[in-house]
Amino acid sequence: MAYGICPLSAVAVRNTSTDSSEMISQLLFGELVEVLEVKGHSWLKVHCLDDNCVGWVAANQLKLITPGEWEAYRNHYAWVLDYVQAAMSDDHYLPLTLGARLPGFDGMRFSLGEASYSFSGQAVFPKDIHPSAELLLKIARRYLNTPYIAGGKSPLGMDASGLTQIVYRIAGIQLPREADQQVFLGETIDFVEQSKPGDLAFFENRLGKITHVGIVVNPSEVLHVFGRVCIDGLDHYGVYNREAGRYLYKLRVIKRLLKSAPTAAKTTESQASTVYSNQFELF
After folding, report:
1. Is the Cα torsion angle 10, 15, 16, 18 positive or negative in sign?
2. Beta pairing, strands 109-112 & 54-58
3. What is the Cβ-side half-sphere exposure of residue 148, based on CA atoms within 13 angstroms?
4. pLDDT tens-digit series, residues 6-47
5. How does pLDDT run across 168-207, given as a tens digit for each residue?
6. Which residues, in sequence order, are bridge partners of residue 84?
7. What is the DSSP string of 127-153?
8. Which SS3 state, helix, strand or coil, does residue 17 take?
9. Which residues of the chain have pLDDT under 70?
10. CA geometry: angle 110, 111, 112, nearest 5 deg
11. Which homologous superfamily is 133-256 in?
12. Distance (Å, rounded) from C-alpha 217 to C-alpha 224?
């Protein structure tokens, strides 16, 4: 088995091995993959470690690594929390976005192969993340006004399921890539009035297929992607866009993935206000 890591800000994962093929997802810097197939010198079929997404990436946009490096990068990294922040090496800059990983980060520096970088932005280690509705919404709000791009999941462009996936991922909860896969997780909430911040709201098309998802801000608002990441009205019928003056998506179900913890919000707030020696202040 061959392994790889994303060495660039964002790399397209495509449905087939051509540049004109649909982008079904993206790899952000530091994401790990298994290489399933090699096609000529130009394309690699990969299996994404975090969400089991399978697709094709350009061979010149992926760095192959050893099994030992794969294990090391998998077990020791930090999340980038800045919207966009450059890492610096001796002779170049590397732009990194919210949701990227810093492999082997020691609080100031990280390395990828022979290249060593310093990073002075906000970063957090997974062990210091404590999932809560407050944390989810703080992360989600950082993406507000990010433009819609099908298959995207970076601050430069993302789709609805890419938004929910990356927000939950940073907060310590893994989700599949697509909305019609994410819907199978969590506890069903019977009425929109019973929804809580951080719940996921799923929406269906006229054929009854789940095609859209958003993060509940409160029982009457949802943060989702419609042209850009935005906050729209939410009720028992669906998403209501005040600017357009109409409903955009029909509500199918609301799911809760966060476990009830009365003191979680206070704990997270306390931890988020503390600057650890090996990480920067969360928000």
Report:
1. negative
2. unpaired
3. 12
4. 999 999 999 999 999 999 999 999 999 999 999 999 999 999
5. 999 999 999 999 999 999 999 999 999 999 999 999 999 9
6. 97
7. GG----HHHHHHHHHTTTTPBB-TT-E
8. coil
9. 260-283
10. 135
11. endopeptidase domain like (from Nostoc punctiforme) (3.90.1720.10)
12. 10
**Cα Rg, the chain, nearest whole Å:** 19
Cβ(21)–Cβ(56) below 8 Å: yes
Contact 216, 199 (CB under 8 A): yes
91 token code pair: 């002779």
Instruction: Assign a CATH topology to domain 2-124.
Output: SH3 type barrels. (2.30.30)
Q: Within 10 A of 231 (CB to CB), how many other CB atoms are there?
A: 16
> What CA–CA distance (Å, rounded) separates 34 from 64?
10
Task: Give the model's pLDDT for residue 270.
Answer: 42
In eight-state DSSP terms, residue 268 is H
Cα–Cα separations (whole angstroms), residue 257 to 38, 200, 267: 37, 8, 19
**Diameter of the chain measured on Cα atoms:** 56
CA distance 61 to 66: 17
Domain ranges for the chain: 2-124, 133-256
- 233 beta partners: 221, 240
As a whole number, the mean pLDDT across the chain is: 91
